[in-house]
Amino acid sequence: MARTRGRKANPEGRMALKEHLREARIRLVKSSVAVVAGTVVGFFIYNPVLEALAAPIQELNEREGRSAALNFDAVASPFDLLIQVSVFLGLIISSPVWLYQLWAFITPGLHAKERRISLSFIAVAVPLFLAGIYLAWLVLPNAVRVLTDFTPGGFTNIITVSVFITFILRLMLAFGIAFLLPVVLFGLNLVGLISGRQILKAWRITVFLVCLFAAMAAPGADAVSMFYLAVPMLVLFFAAIGLCLLNDKRRARRNAAREAELDATADSASTIEGL
Question: 91 and 31 in contact (C-beta within 8 Å)?
Fold first, then answer.
């Protein structure tokens, strides 16, 4: 991507395909190193995190008097689960790093002022990503309770740990990514790839796609998790549309001022030539 020191020589921030690929590789390596470091940290906090993830099943036994248990179905399952949960924790812990690398790769050609504005992406994206995961954590007990309500009387819920943890991780990851989408949408508007009016005109299809994504992303068949995912996404999407419209107005004023300055310069040059 375009380097800051090359802005004067390359004002549009353009690069050859080879340079794009090299920059992508560098940012991918940095992100991978951060994820690996976060995974190591996740390895050490694995046990308390696993106990917290299994809490909804324990509540079914203690508070509601049901018979439910988590079981490993293979010899290597505990190790596989350790790796899976540690990597997921690594993604969460390293999210400021890989989100920044992603943003820096997407927005290479911004001007200095826009770059300062774009730094707010990390300040917004990381809390939103974590907020999505936290919301999934709040939804989880209700989702488990609703889904296990379909168990007939006299039967026991013997749940495979790998299946249950995969269910939880998918739920959290879906919520986290869903909360990032409006920020990415504003980022695309910031670099001029899409306008706020274009998004606003398609608000009906946007609402439909958000609901469709919520239905597909929510790993359970219950409407509770879908509702908890769809409503915040719609709020964030329409907030992003409002920010895009404001940014479009700011860009239009800046372009108008630039054109007026160019016209004034041209008029001055014509006057000098006429003397």
Answer: no
Per-residue pLDDT tens over the stretch 241-272: 888 888 788 877 777 777 777 666 666 666 66
Environment class of 125 (CB within 10 Å of its CB; exposed 0-12, middle 13-18, buried 19+): buried
Q: Determine contact, residues 176/129, Cβ cutoff 8 Å.
A: yes
Q: Among the residues of the chain, which ranges form H helices? A: 17-44, 46-53, 55-62, 77-93, 95-106, 112-118, 120-148, 161-190, 196-201, 203-217, 223-274
Task: Give dist(CA 60, CA 66) in Å, integer.
Answer: 6
Could you tell me the CA-to-CA distances from 42 to 86, 172, 200, 273 in Å, in that order? 5, 16, 41, 71
7 burial (CB, 10 Å; 0-12 / 13-18 / 19+) is middle
pTM: 0.65
In whole angstroms, give the CA distance from residue 100 to residue 128: 14
Q: How far apart are CA 194 and CA 182, in angstroms?
A: 13
